[in-house]
DNA sequence: CGACTAGTTGAACGACGTCAACCGTTGTGG
DNA sequence: CCACAACGGTTGACGTCGTTCAACTAGTCG
């Protein structure tokens, strides 16, 4: 079921255009827009790919939220990154035969698979696109470094504040948040997996943030009531997102 | 002060050869070996590059140990990765204008700088090398994901055991460890920055590991006395290192 | 010899985890 | 339509891991 979308809304075109350091040529844009996408839907909690898989395709998030995670042998889970529409969460599979992480759906998720062959053919025809995609993976790396600093060296209150700041900014960029409010159907248990703390403690920190008037998270919706305060609490500096047009 | 080394010991050749999925051609090896290197030496604790720099070159570790780190605003430091000889710690600077991390020398460090221009020219002439270098950065990403799991979800005892396992394996690969013993002139304070714990606690965990007969760390030397036990304690599975020839 | 640095250890404290109870909502089947 | 199970959120009590502070030791360098 190949699904062709109009070029300007095609996820690859939007993403690469926003990431690359040069303006895409017509043929390059065309090549991206005509990449054959295999669309698939996942319910929350379902896994898309698993550690030790050897995929021959990678995928883009079309809608919904995905999470990269790893688990220890005794089953403790650590979420390493969230992926918003436009992201290419397992792009490394193109050059790394066996996956070292799993990716699951956080909310209802629609993704588009692209075969490695098709990508390699495109790169052969349009070598500049390699730089652009490479850059996309490097930006993901930058996010993960900030995540490491956040989880390693900030206590849970600023840590959670930082996470909410990042999510809000990234969702705003792709048009999924407005007025500092976004759809975020995530359980407190899952939040704990991302922050490296227990769900009980998540609950307490959420309460603190709520009673401080910074945010509310309920009914699957995150609302930031005091952006300046949240940003300050999380020591949030968006430089590491490598945005090209800075706002807020 | 350009410094030309014999091709088989040239750090780029060794590294890319060990990382790439295809055998390098003569001209490719030649191009790597003749990359002009600007050699520089750093004392322990000195910074090589700093967050917010906009470098026009990147570097390879020639000898010694380097560390990538970030700091919070109030000065708490988190080490994100260690780099052994052959590694390309800031290769992302080629496609990411402004650095989002700093790199410092852990022990006496010798590095070789290569200008971005020279690299780009080489990639233009030998497009397959792009894949190889890309793959090198992806493997670094894999290490950082395991690091995130380790620091996020393991307690300090297994966490430290895991770190020592990784360092030992990586140093063995580049010939800097033998008999499960290696030069590791690192203070307990710095170890704490890597593991996200205080130096006092590092001391106590080291004592536990020592009294359990697993390792000793003194006089700038790490000795593993019971590799099987250390590996078990750290739940260490080297898959994430993406080695091509597995040993031990 | 004194000053400095890294390591070592104890004691008190704090952050976060664990356990357990309870509540509210949702969904399902009799 | 109601009963009830299942699940996520909320809260308290208590335990543990790791931090902080502080004192002391040992090695090194001038």
Would you kindly provide a written description of the structure presented here, covering whatever features stand out?
Chain A is α+β, with helices and mostly antiparallel strands and 248 residues long. Chain A is built from eight helices and eleven strands. In chain A, the strands form three sheets. Chain A has a four-stranded antiparallel β-sheet. Mean pLDDT of chain A is 93; it is low at 1-5. Chains A and B meet through strand 4, strand 5 and helix 4 of A and strand 4, strand 5 and helix 4 of B. Chain A binds a DNA duplex (30 and 30 nucleotides) through helix 7.
* CA-CA gap between termini of chain A: 40 Å
Low-confidence stretches of chain A: 1-5
Give the H and E element order of chain A: HHEEEEEEEHHHEEHHEEH
Classify the oligomer. homodimer
Helix fraction bin of chain A = 25-40%
Mean pLDDT of chain A: 93
Structural class from helices and strands of chain A?
alpha+beta
Shape of chain A: globular
Main sheet of chain A, how many strands, which sense, barrel?
Answer: 4 strands, antiparallel
Tally of separate domains of chain A: 2
**E-strand count of chain A:** 11
- Biggest interface, CB < 8 A: A-B, 44 and 44 residues
| Named CATH topology of the largest domain in chain A | Jelly Rolls
Into which percentage range does the β-strand content of chain A fall? 15-25%
CATH homologous group name of the largest domain in chain A: Jelly Rolls
Cross-sheet strand order for the largest sheet of chain A:
2-6-4-5
Summed up, the helix count of chain A is 8
Radius of gyration of chain A: 18 Å
- What is the class of the largest domain in chain A in the CATH system? Mainly Beta
């Amino acid at each position: 079921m190949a699904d062709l979308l109009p070029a300007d809304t095609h996820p690859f075109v939007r993403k690469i255009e926003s990431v690359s350091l040069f303006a895409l040529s017509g043929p390059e844009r065309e090549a991206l827009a005509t990449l054959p996408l295999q669309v698939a839907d996942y319910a929350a909690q379902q896994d898309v790919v698993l550690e030790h898989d050897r995929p021959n395709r990678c995928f883009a998030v079309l809608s919904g939220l995905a999470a990269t995670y790893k688990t220890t042998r005794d089953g403790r889970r650590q979420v390493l990154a969230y992926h918003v529409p436009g992201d290419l969460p397992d792009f490394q599979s193109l050059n790394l035969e066996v996956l070292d992480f799993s990716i699951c759906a956080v909310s209802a998720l629609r993704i588009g698979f692209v075969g490695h062959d098709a990508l390699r053919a495109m790169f052969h025809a349009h070598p500049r696109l390699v730089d652009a995609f490479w850059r996309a993976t490097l930006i993901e790396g930058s996010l993960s470094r900030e995540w490491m600093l956040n989880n390693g060296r900030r206590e849970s209150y600023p840590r959670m504040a930082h996470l909410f700041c990042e999510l809000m900014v990234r969702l705003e960029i792709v048009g999924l948040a407005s007025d500092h409010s976004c759809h975020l159907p995530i359980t407190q248990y899952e939040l704990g997996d991302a922050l490296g703390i227990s769900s009980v403690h998540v609950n307490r920190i959420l309460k603190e943030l709520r009673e401080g008037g910074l945010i509310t998270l309920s009914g699957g919706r995150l609302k930031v009531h005091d952006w300046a305060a949240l940003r300050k609490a999380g020591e949030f500096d968006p430089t590491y997102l490598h945005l090209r047009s800075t706002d807020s």
